[in-house]
Amino acid sequence: MRRVAVVVFAVLLAAQVRVAAAAPAGSAGSAGSAGSAVSAATPKPSPSPTAGSGGPTPGSQVVQPVQSCSQQDGDLSSAGTAAPWAEQVLGFTGAWQFTRGQGVNVAVIDSGVSGSQQLGRRLIIGQSLTGTSAGLDCVDHGTGVAGIIAAAQKQRNPFAGVAPGAGILSIKVTDKEGVDAGSLATGIVDAVNDHAQIINVSDQVGNTPALSNAVQYAARMNVVIVAAAGNVDQQTGSTGPFYPAAYAGDPAAYPNVLSVGAVDPAGAVPSFSQQVLTPVSVVAPGAGILTIAPGGTFKQQDGTSFAAPFVAGVAALVRASHQKLTAAEVVSRVTATADGGTGAGAGRTGAGMVDPLQAVTAVLPVAGQPATPMPAADPVSAPRPQPPDRFTRMLVVSVTGGALGAAGLVVIGAVVIPAGRRRRGG
Predict the structure, then answer these.
(1) Non-local CB neighbours of 251 within 8 Å, separated by 6+ positions
(2) Which CATH number is 229's domain given?
(3) How many domains does the chain have?
(4) Is the pLDDT reported for residue 408 higher than 90?
(5) In a domain, 291, yes or no
(6) Region 389-411 average pLDDT
(7) What average pLDDT score do residues 267-290 get?
(8) Which of 60, 125, 257, 306 could form a disulfide with 289 if both were Cys (CB 3.0 to 4.6 A apart)?
(9) Are 179 and 145 in contact (CB under 8 A)?
């Protein structure tokens, strides 16, 4: 028995020696070296291979480096007690008796969308080009955009989005203010491939072939693009035109694009976008806009960035209630039902204020027509009737005088005759 035990012990010892010899140096307790095994159930970050290391060996699990950023919460702890002015002006709750946007996914190509109770499980975390999760908003921008589009009603909370039944697909293209055109083009393609029916772009860039191709790809795939017309660039002073919104000026090539300008509570174009050269399809509230922010907070926002999602929400309502419409027809319907010229803006209001209820319910005289540029407004004059000739005038005067005389006799008779009868009877 002792001999058997010794033999077994020797075999076990030899096996341990072989295992130790096979393990690479430094692997004990390390989860970050290139090519190290990392549990698939609990992935951990791994540093990028150093230059000349040859990278991970074939067949090993590759774990991409994960960066981090600080989530930017809003500066308001609640939404207050009264409905925001934008909700009161647009009256989009009136359209909810017909649809709330169920079954429509709106892609928010932005700084990511942090989770919110008002978005719930309708938030879909999509692609990220930044190394941080598309479910993490480090700029406090994309979350606010998503809230305007689709935040659900909550008790003791007056804020709600335009289409609270729609889904939100977060496509993250930046972790800072602004984005480059290449990343934006890639984000649009990713959103189309992820089956978004509407894409909201609240960024402004220059025109590039890649961006043009991405927007036309969305058109071929029947996807509506709602884009902010842009604000005057605070650093360069540039007034545009800004893209992809400016593609709305060429509906023949880009029939799927809606360019959105902003108005303030007085109905006027705010100073931050009065000089912008981007063509405008419609306008929506874009100054002093209350919306959700990361961390269950709220924030007041300004800019065409926050006007565009109101229109994206309306487009979601239209797509949900008119499911056979093409992207071009959705664009046409939203512009055709807008509420005329709005406020003072020197032609910067396009077809006017977007009208959610009319966009959903209006019976249009011609359906299915692609959007066309809005013509300049002509002065309106009330037509005056032609003066009658002398004979007609004399005849009218005579007839009128006779009628008045007869009416006077009737009145006198009605007063005098009964009085005489009363005197005789007395």
Answers:
(1) 257, 328, 331, 370, 371, 372, 373
(2) 3.40.50.200
(3) 1
(4) no
(5) yes
(6) 45
(7) 95
(8) 306
(9) no
Q: Tell me whether residue 30 is exposed, middle or buried, using C-beta atoms within 10 angstroms of its C-beta: 0 to 12, 13 to 18, 19 or more.
A: exposed
Q: Is the dihedral of CA 320, 102, 134, 204 positive or negative?
A: positive
For 183: left if phi > 0, alpha if psi spans -120 to 50, otherwise beta; the answer is alpha
Among this protein's residues, is 33 annotated catalytic? no
Q: What's the domain range around 250?
A: 85-361
Instruction: Say whether pLDDT at 216 is over 50.
Output: yes
Burial class (CB in 10 A: 0-12, 13-18, 19+), 93: middle
The single-letter code of the amino acid at 65 is P
Amino acid identity at 412: I
Quick one: 182 exposed, middle or buried, by C-beta within 10 A (0-12, 13-18, 19+)? middle
Q: Please indicate whether residue 141 is annotated as part of the active site.
A: yes
pLDDT band at 366 (very low <50, low <70, confident <90, very high): low
Q: Residue 106 half-sphere exposure, CB side, CA atoms within 13 Å?
A: 42
CA triplet 312, 315, 318: central angle to 5 degrees? 160
Lowest mean pLDDT of 37-46, 75-84, 152-161, 214-223, name the range.
37-46
In the chain, pLDDT over 90 holds for what percent of residues?
63
DSSP string, 189-222: HHHHHTT-SEEEE---B---HHHHHHHHHHHHTT
Residue 49 located in a structural domain: no
Q: Is residue 341 in some structural domain?
A: yes
Q: Are the C-beta atoms of 341 and 267 separated by less than 8 Å?
A: no
Q: Which of 46, 137, 141, 332 does the annotation list as catalytic?
A: 141
In a domain, 312, yes or no: yes
Active site residue 110: yes
Q: What is the mean pLDDT of the chain?
A: 78
* pLDDT at residue 348, as a whole number: 77
Given the residues 305, 321, 332, 355, select the one marked as catalytic. 305
- Which is the catalytic residue, given 73, 110, 175, 355? 110
Max mean pLDDT among 2-16, 275-289, 339-353 falls in: 275-289
The per-residue DSSP string of 142-156 comes to HHHHHHHHHPPPBTT
